[in-house]
Amino acid sequence: MTHTTPDNFLGLDQQYSTLDTSKVVVLPIPFEATVSYGGGTANGPAAIIEASQQVEFYDREFDNEPAKTWGVHTLPSVEVNDQDPDSAMASIAQAVEQTARLGKLVCVLGGEHSVSGAVAQGLQAVHGDFVTVQIDAHADLRDEYEGSKHSHACAMRRILDVGAGDLLQLGIRSLDISEAQLIKTDPRITTFYSENVHDGLHLQALRDFVRGKQVYFTIDIDGLDVGLVPATGTPEPDGLTWREVLEITRILVQESSKVVAFDVMELAPIEQLHAPNFVSAKLTYKVMSIIMAQQANLWQ
């Protein structure tokens, strides 16, 4: 008898992955058009999904198999024109809006981080205002970069343009002088650099920032320590640890009124190097599990 693993996130059997019965939907968006150093983020979503099929369902923290409790449906990839960023972002926003209207937790897998600006547009159309919590090595606050307002270096600036709410950045350790000045002068932005997070200086501010609010949680995989995930376009030293990222996740889930969506972006797989893909997949499942353990009753 031949067993074929279903081609979906975690390789779930149909009884745990139908659209009707699942409370979580995974939306792959393999968009890559503006990377400025290492490429390959277009292959990130597929690599995460493939690696996720090796992740154990059982979670010791919850003493169960979370994905089988609430179900995860994997949607087809959003295919857009990489050569026309304006059109691509409009298509992504529309796809996210349609997905959010399903009444389920949305998990977006990227793709370059520029996708997140369009994700925010789609989410606001359904959920209204929310605040954004960003884990990232880079500030991503430039108004344009290399001639494009849709560059990965502009992702958070485009989220701010949506006007959905304020931005809390965690783990930043690379930015240019214009971004540094914006952080100092724009009251919508609160930034904790990597050394601040290592010292725990962000914890109370994070609680206060998300308390009682809807949250969009965006994770650029380069926000993590480069030893955990070296496979990313612009790796930076002194990233966040696994425990720090999960502590952040638990706080924002416990204090917020609802996590409307989260994403995992910027994995750029390296052939024959499986660890970064697996870490990204396990992180995706763990964040998903923490959210659903606290907020499952908020979803369809």
Automatic annotation (TrEMBL):
InterPro entries: Agmatinase-rel, Ureohydrolase, Ureohydrolase_dom_sf. Keywords: Hydrolase, Manganese, Metal-binding. Binds 2 manganese ions per subunit. CDD domains: Agmatinase-like_2. It holds the Pfam family Arginase. Mn(2+) binds at residues 113, 136, 138, 140, 220, 222. One of its GO terms (biological process) is putrescine biosynthetic process from arginine, via agmatine. The keyword Metal-binding applies. PROSITE patterns: ARGINASE_2 (PS51409). Its cofactor is Mn(2+). One of its GO terms (molecular function) is agmatinase activity. Belongs to the arginase family. Agmatinase subfamily. This is Agmatinase. It comes from Herpetosiphon geysericola.
